[in-house]
Amino acid sequence: METRKNNKKVFNFGEASLVKQTEKAVIEGVQAIENKETRGTENDTPMGAEATHDVEPTQNINIPIPVSLHQRLKIISATRRRNMKDLVAIAIKEYVDKQG
Predict the structure, then answer these.
(1) Partners of 3 in the beta sheet?
(2) Residue 60 and residue 66: Cα distance in Å, rounded?
(3) How distant, in Å, are the alpha carbons of 51, 68, 72 from that of 18?
(4) pLDDT tens, 26-47?
């Protein structure tokens, strides 16, 4: 799994599908960030901006989610310059509001 090149360790993880999927997600995320930097969007809210308006006490939750979903959320978080905590809170609020 490891080879040497100019006295540096070079790792070869082969053609694993998870490696390909992760590389694709990273490339797409970087491209999205670069595109946003060149043209901007109407959702240019700084990370954590919404949390500064919270006056209600909060309660933490810890839930396992699929890695692929976490990766997608992280990319959205980076491209929109919003932290993941705020995005998850918004998504849960929208879902709860629709339910009842």
Answers:
(1) 10
(2) 19
(3) 34, 9, 14
(4) 778 777 777 766 665 445 444 4
Q: Which two tokens stand for residue 36?
A: 């946003």
Q: Determine phi and psi for 9, rounding to 5 degrees.
A: -75, 130
The C-alpha atoms of residue 70 and residue 52 are separated, in whole angstroms, by 24
Pairwise CA distance, residues 47 & 82, whole Å: 4
pLDDT at residue 47, as a whole number: 47
In this predicted structure, what is the pLDDT of residue 44? 47
For the chain, the first-to-last Cα distance in angstroms comes to 53
Q: How far apart, in whole angstroms, are the C-alpha atoms of residue 90 and residue 92? A: 6
Residues of the chain with pLDDT under 50: 41-42, 44-49
SS3 assignment, position 83: coil
